[in-house]
Amino acid sequence: MTQSVKVRSGTVPPPTAPKRLSVPGGTLGSWFLPVVAAVIMFVVIFAVAPAASSYLGLSLLLSSLLPLVLACLAQMFVIAAGDVDLGIGSFVGLVNVTVAAILPTHTLPGILLLIGLVVAYALMGMLIAVRRLPSIIVTLGMSFVWLGLAILILPTPGGTVPEGIVSFVDWSPPLVPGTIVAIVVVTVVVALFLNRTRYGAVLRGSGSNPEGIRRAGWSVVRTKMALYGIAGLLGVLSGIVLSGQAASGDPNIATSYVLLSIAGVIVGGGSFRGGDISPVGTVAGALVIGLIATLLQFLDVPSSYQVGTQGLVLVLILVLRAGVTWWRRRVETGGLA
Amino acid sequence: MNVRSARRRPALLAAGLAALTCLVAACGAGPSTEPGAAPSIGLSTYYTGNNWRKEMVSSFQSGATDAQKTGIIGKYSVADSNGSVPQQAAQIQSMIIQGYRAILVEAASPTALNGSIQKACDAGITVVAFDSLVTADCAYKVATDYVKYGELETEYVAQRLGGKGNILMVRGIPGNSVDNDVYAGVQNVLKKYPDMKLVSEVYGQFTESVAQQQVAGVLPSLPKIDAVLTEGNDGGGAMQAFRQANVNPLPLVVMGNTGQDLQVWQKVAQQVPGYTTMSVSSYPSMSTVAMWVAVNVLAGKPVPKLVYAPVLTIPEQNRDAWAGHLGYGEVANKVLSQEDSQRFIDASASGNPLHVDSPLPEAAQ
Fold it and tell me: Which of B114, B146, B152, B208 could staple B181 via S-S, CB 3.0–4.6 A?
């Protein structure tokens, strides 16, 4: 991430992507720690359960994490705008229900509805930007709208996801499980877009320094619409993948994603400041969040301690991160901070 | 559903499984997957935060410990997904990696775990869903017939009131399958008694304190209530609301098997001579029945796909024994043995399942 778009530098960000970006994913500090944490988790899991490192083991381990990764990236774009999205969980649930209950019988209306949902997200961003509404209130309110719609479409869990989506999500190329390919592709695309393109830099800048972006001639309303629209698109993708895995619909399938996705972004090196996010870190954060429970299960931690221990591990990672941030600032400012 | 998944890349799965088995066997980590060894059993639940669930987990653990001592099962473990559906799916998939021979599932969603459960079945693992069930065809199911639950309590109330009176119903959680079933059972019986009127419904969320608040909230607007139907873990709270409002005479409140319910029942019976009611809820140790179903399936014994576990009722004569046995927040339970489970399995197989059981607490027997 460029220093020039940070609030504390006080400078107006240039509308073009600076040339000196070398590491996709941002500064060393923000993505490094979550990646190390994710790697450590994999190493421990492989040590405890060697079967997890086989092709089948890896696909079982990671397939359920792909929708969470996508939901975390969706949350990341909203957090990049300096906002928080409390509706992503029921939004993913609504996508799941649409895929399970509308797509099989009414293909075209189903596809139009999914596109409409992405547009609805962009419009929600516009509403928040134009009326200067607190995102927490708007997205919380919308979460009930998404859930309500989902329950209208499918009052009780059921439905059948089209075979095409199930087998697409189940795609098993030789050598490397499809999930790993998907995670890598999504991470690279999002990281390149945010860190290497002109518009990516503008989007990040609009979260950290909207005034600067406005003065540079960009519409802050439009950047916010773009951030929310991308979040909506990623949310729809998350819902489609989740549907393919569950093979049926349930309005409440993803309610836990609200807090998990926020935790994933923050553990992944992002902050609520706006603009201060890392795609690589977020993906690593999502893996960490998703794997903690699995790790504890493999380590045979008693169920009554599992929930509490998960929380402790998260706090530990955040404490480590705070320590790293403090150290970096000390080094940067020559020990005067 | 299982037909569709069964023809999904069987060769690849077989190859993967072979690799998995070999890795597990070679490294000696995780539970054994050899057919001859005592089978390992994992229990996957999505919530352990209330008394019923705690009792459910601990009765599985004590049943499994005994079975382990006698060499019937090998390793066992319990995992809790903290309310998250996708995490429970991940949990089940991790159990496949760990090589469990059977997985018992208290499902967070009736449909959303079907993909993971199908993967487990495809890997040759016996899956038994219990209490909150799944729709996946390949899973065995251990269920309480909650429609019968509703019929039982309404039938009791109808007899006591002589088929005439005003009823208040404390329901569970809107949209919950237990709530839907109990309510359907209540309606079935009420149809037969046109003079029994369901005058109001509140949602107590299977929680005493919530039931108390909700009942207290509607009481001022209600006509004289003759009886209160409940869905478990809510009768004592409902009764407290009537007592605090100084309602006289107190209605007939069906209790829900918690220590609080029984103590309130005792207290009311002391103050109001001749006051009597019944208490009913499902068996927390359905988890143990699920374990024995899995053991039977793994041993190749015939087991019906759907096994009914009875509800646990506490009639008047058992009240004091249970009240003395249970702590305020505890739920009535009895660890169901292999013989008990076999009885339920056989009764379900014969098409005449056992729906009601009225045991005494273990210490009193």
Answer: B146
